[in-house]
Write a structure and sequence with these properties.
Layout (H helix, E strand, L loop, with lengths): L1 E2 L4 E2 L21 H5 L12 H6 L13 H13 L4 H14 L1 H10 L1 H8 L3 H7 L1 H4 L16 H8 L27 H15 L4
Antiparallel strand pairs: 1-2
Helix pairs in contact: 3-5, 4-5, 4-7, 5-6, 7-10
Keywords: NAD
GO biological process, one term: malate metabolic process
GO molecular function: malate dehydrogenase (decarboxylating) (NAD+) activity
């Protein structure tokens, strides 16, 4: 649901996972904030009604596309990259913009893309973490500040919203040795596979 200060709009922009889920997600964002949220952003797939309700007119090209059309275009973009690490980074960028499109694209091409989003290519991305870093993902717990763990976890998410976690200490990642904070990539990669293959919503 999105409030505009005077009324509440029914959330036509509720995010739909490519994996069937029982509940729709309610969205309390509008305008640029909505477009900057990878969980709720649908890009050119927002309908005319949704664009009115969520103050998106003028923030998107006027053409409206289906998820299928978006997926076809994204796959063509994916194929334009030759090196596996470049394909991996394209998919990561897509995930940072539009999670539904990210999962739909990979679900449609899972056999082809498995080695790109997981081993061996994700191992290469983890080794180059500092050079490829765009934005933080996950929750970083500092062993030197163990007393702050409860506070940090509380800032990241409410316990009632968490059903499944993937934890790493950064050691012996994919046979490439200790990777420090870059090992967060193995956790996010495994969570993506859990969503794609087991329907776990992350």
């Amino acid at each position: 649901m999105v409030g505009d200060g005077s009324e509440t709009h029914s959330s036509a922009a509720r995010s739909k996972s490519p994996i069937k889920v029982q509940d729709e997600l309610e969205c309390a964002l509008a305008g640029k904030a909505l477009l900057n949220s990878p969980r709720f952003n649908k890009g050119s797939a927002f309908t005319a009604e949704e664009r009115d309700a969520f103050q998106l007119n003028g923030l998107l090209p006027t053409a409206i596309h289906t998820l299928g059309q978006q997926t076809k275009r994204a796959y063509e973009q994916y194929l334009s990259y030759e090196h596996p690490i470049a394909k991996n980074q394209f998919l990561q960028s897509l995930r940072d913009q539009n999670e539904v499109l990210f999962y739909r694209l990979i679900l449609d091409h899972l056999k082809e893309m498995f080695s790109i989003i997981y081993t061996p290519t994700e191992g290469d991305a983890i080794e180059q973490y500092s050079h490829l870093f765009r934005r933080p993902e996950g929750c970083f717990l500092d062993v030197e500040n163990i007393d702050t763990v409860d506070e940090v976890v509380g800032q990241w998410a409410h316990p009632d919203d968490i059903d499944y976690i993937v934890v790493t200490d950064g050691e012996e990642i994919l046979g490439i040795g200790d990777q420090g904070v870059g090992a967060i990539g193995i956790s996010t990669a495994k969570l993506a596979l859990m969503t794609l293959c087991a329907g776990v919503c992350t």
